[in-house]
Amino acid sequence: MKKFIALTATLSLLISCGSSDRGELVGVKGKKWRPEKPYGMALVPGGAYIMGKSDEDLANVQDAPTKTVTVRSFYMDETEITNSEYRQFIEWVKDSTIRTRLAILADEQGQTPGSGGIGEYAFKDQSTEGEEKSPYDTYMEENYWSLGTDDDMYAGRKLNHKPKLIKDVQKYPDEYYVEVMDSMYLPESESYNGLRTIDVTKLVFKYTWMDIDAAAKDKTTGISRTKRSKYLKTEPVAVYPDTTAWIKDFAYSYNEPMHNDYFWHDAYGEYPVVGVNWKQAKAFCAWRTLNKNAYQKEKKRQFVNSFRLPTEAEWEYAARGGLQSATYPWGGPYSKNDTGCFLANFKPNRGDYAADGALYTVEAESFDPNGYNLFNMSGNVSEWTDSSYDANSYEYVSTMNPNASEAANKRKVIRGGSWKDVSYFLQVSTRDWEYADSARSYIGFRTVQDYMGTQNTANGR
After folding, report:
1. 384 in a domain, yes or no?
2. Bridge partner residues of 384 (DSSP)
3. Which of 341, 308, 278, 317 is nearest to 428 (CA)?
4. Are 65 and 340 within 8 A, CB to CB?
5. How distant is the alpha carbon of residue 448 from its chain centre?
6. How far, in Å, CA of 84 to CA of 272, rounded?
7. Would you report the helix, strand and coil content of the chain in percent, each value rounded to 5?
8. Is residue 340 part of a domain?
9. How far is CA 120 from the centre of its chain?
10. Fewest CB atoms less than 10 Å from the CB: which of 152, 226, 331, 342?
11. Residues in domain Sulfatase-modifying factor enzyme-like (predicted)?
12. Could you tell me if 117 and 176 are in contact, meaning their C-beta atoms sit under 8 angstroms apart?
């Protein structure tokens, strides 16, 4: 009987296909792909360039010998990620954390939608009496959602984002809601000036990624269905910036106002976020991809590819803005224009941070952009890249999309120099590094996304 059904299905498939393609090799037809420039990003057309120190290496570091390499096309944020943009990430994590805690407590109390109070925030798979579930939801609940995982018994269960969170304490619907909201804040004993502060250690973003490099290099199995889980990595990351970096980075210096106000106050909304370590920057990239694709799914559109940190080679190529062998994004060799104005935010003179018009950072869209319409590729804040730092890496990396990314190497490349650096670090070829778990008041980041579509290279123009 099974053989008969299989044969019938095969014949039906052949007949149905034959009626539309006339037996020709026409391929599988999908929707026509039209590249869409991501919001706030500029296209960096791929091509070849001379990576490394074309000028004299004044510091005699000798870690950036010249090398001709080629990179593929990609999009890059026109500015560093700002405080306002990173706060969107924080608010999303906070909202999801609160909703998760409400849903779990509703589940423990047997509350469901329609019962009022905390029940309105129950998991979406919770149904009221008499409500029918779809075959898909029934199957997923029986085989996955009800089982969870060893690490999370609620894994896979969907949050209900429809009801709005209530912020007015006098309008909390029941004591369970009060309990959840109270758990998100520091104890009363730790509050001062009449303000209760949210416990930022509760703001954890967990995401899963696949270590494709490790899988590809595994000679025993490679990427196979049975071994796929071996390469899946789950990263729980506390995402709130370390605002104390403003204090810790500078001994015997008064920077408390920056610690108190820089990240959260609207006055600094368009300034680059700092105090974010490499892992937090990677988590932001994962969230940005998740957030965008949730919208794409809702609109029934094709998913976009991942946002990520740029490789060191991509960053230098983008910083040059199409200028070969230039010292700075604007060319050079000077850091002032013909009217005597500084072209970036850095420390121009010994002890004089404000000669360029700013003591600390400036707004992310300050100064003139380079040839690819990218702002502050030199100065303002140094930027994380995806690459690991090795003084000898230029000697062995590929000449095609070069990248030295080693999980065991915790030293990650930062580029561009910052508001507290001298002009040497502003040079597009200067390499610097910081430990992945370190957060600094002078390090931020920007993201990139691979370009998909018709061939687009700067060398072909």
Report:
1. yes
2. 414
3. 317
4. no
5. 9
6. 9
7. 30, 15, 55
8. yes
9. 32
10. 226
11. 40-448
12. yes
Which tokens in the block code for residue 411? 């030293």
Number of separate domains in the chain: 1
Residue 35 lies in a domain: no
Residue 331: give the domain boundaries: 41-82+281-460
Residue written as tokens 């001298």? 422
∠ CA 214-216-222, nearest 5°, is: 100
Of 39, 90, 40, the closest CA to residue 365 belongs to 40
Q: 117 is written with which tokens? A: 């109070």
Q: What is the pTM assigned to this prediction?
A: 0.90
The pLDDT, as a whole number, for residue 132 is 67
Question: For the segment 228-287, what is each residue's pLDDT rounded down to a tens digit?
Answer: 778 888 899 999 999 999 999 999 999 999 999 999 999 999 999 999 999 999 999 999
Strands 382-388 and 443-444: parallel
Phi-psi region of 171 (alpha: psi -120 to 50; beta: other; left: phi over 0): alpha
Side-chain-side CA neighbours of residue 324 (13 Å): 11
Burial call 275-300: b when 16+ CB within 10 Å, e when fewer? bbbbbbbbbbbbbbbeebbeeeeeee
What is the percentage of the chain residues whose pLDDT exceeds 70? Answer: 88
For the domain that residue 445 is a member of, what is the CATH number?
3.90.1580.10
Angle at alpha carbon of residue 62, lines to 459 and 433, rounded to 5° = 85
Q: Quick: pLDDT tens for 340-399.
A: 899 999 998 888 888 888 999 999 999 999 999 999 999 999 999 999 999 999 999 999
Confirm if 335 and 60 have CB atoms less than 8 A apart. no
